[in-house]
Specification:
Elements (H helix, E strand, L loop, with lengths): L1 H8 L8 H14 L2 H6 L2 E6 L2 E7 L13 H16 L6 E10 L8 E12 L2 E9 L5 E11 L12
Antiparallel strand pairs: 1-2, 2-4, 3-6, 4-5, 5-6
Length: 160
């Protein structure tokens, strides 16, 4: 019985395949991300340097104009950026970002944010995120700048 608990405490091996690593890192990050979960944001896919997330605009996300508050659109884009820049299992944070709103989103709209890595050099990266509605209409364009800090999203065991 004691041996079973020791086995359960041993972390799973970190995949060597970059796509498998990105997917596992995305799953672990999402489980630890109550903010994205509270948005109703769903992680659709993650690749090395990329991610796709979606959310449905709810009534409690509307502003006084009955359109989606820009902060919720920003949060979706920012979360997608985070999944993209952490996809190699290296802890990475935002160092800055901008967003341009192109069109309003309305209650019931299904927004999809697609992040792509524009540049990665040393500890810094630039990621572009496009947010579109269910009809493919562009809602916003976000650019995030990342900085890699120490650590891994999924702990990597030191060789014994």
């Amino acid at each position: 019985m004691q041996m079973a608990s020791k086995v359960a405490d041993v972390p799973a091996a970190v995949p060597e395949d970059p796509q498998e690593l990105a997917e596992q890192t995305g799953r672990v990050m999402y489980e630890r991300d109550p903010a994205s979960q509270a948005l109703g944001a769903r992680l659709e896919s993650v690749t090395p340097g990329g991610a796709v997330m979606s959310m449905t605009v709810r009534g409690d996300m509307l502003n006084g104009h009955k359109t989606c508050h820009g902060g919720f659109i920003f949060a979706l884009a920012d979360s997608t950026f985070a999944f993209a820049c952490n996809s190699r299992n290296l802890v990475t944070v935002a160092s800055g970002c901008t967003i341009d709103y192109l069109a309003p989103a309305f209650e019931g709209d299904r927004l999809t944010a697609t992040a792509v890595e524009y540049s990665l050099a040393g500890r810094t990266g630039i990621y572009d995120v496009q947010v579109a509605n269910q009809d493919g209409k562009q809602i916003a364009v976000f650019r995030g700048r990342s900085y890699r800090i120490k650590g891994n999203v999924i702990p990597v065991d030191d060789p014994v």
